[in-house]
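Chapter summary example.
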Amino acid sequence: GSAPVNPGWSTPTSITTATPTATPKPTPREAGSGRLHLGETGLVDQAVRIRSADGIATLIIAEGARAADASGNPLRAVTLAALDAADVPAVPGAYAFAGYAWITGPEGAVFSPPATLSFNFTEEQWDAVYNGSVQDGLVVQRYDRSANTWEEVPTIVLPETRSVTAVVSYFSTYALFAAAPGDDAAQAVAADTGTKPVARDIPYTHLIPGLLALVIAGVGALLYFRKGEP
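The structure predicted for these 230 residues follows.
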């Protein structure tokens, strides 16, 4: 038979004590779809990275940035696409097209503070772009469609990481250029006048500290993302 059961005794109920866990701090995400996530204030609520399909270009939009389209409306999506060399607008005479150009869209979109656009190369690609004749003259330029001209943007070149990072205040076509090597005409003028030719260094000295700091911050963000990649 079965053992008698004491009516005054019941099986204890198992009690689980919940251990509080700290809420993890959000980490910057990669918006592969090209969508921006905006907070209630209309600002980008988390740092966003967008990579081009070829893996060379990386667009980084900072947390807290205000992103608006050409009409001033909140921006919800962005695009980044490589541009064929044959479609690159006429190149400035003092520069040679380095073979890499991208279209950031939608055209005319504005960012405050600016976004950063980085070009990241393999060792073979870097050797072709960064060589002894033009190593001091790499610069990113933006195409101004209304004026049909190219304009330099603040640029930092980092040989140790084989990367070039530029400030992107608003969206357009961006391309990498190198100062044309062996400018014989400039050398001839210098010899005739007794003056030295002007060096084609990247113009960091006239940048306001805030913009230069922004480029450096963009480089730091790029390195952060790279560390997390397999």
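To summarize the output: DSSP finds three helices and twelve strands in the chain.
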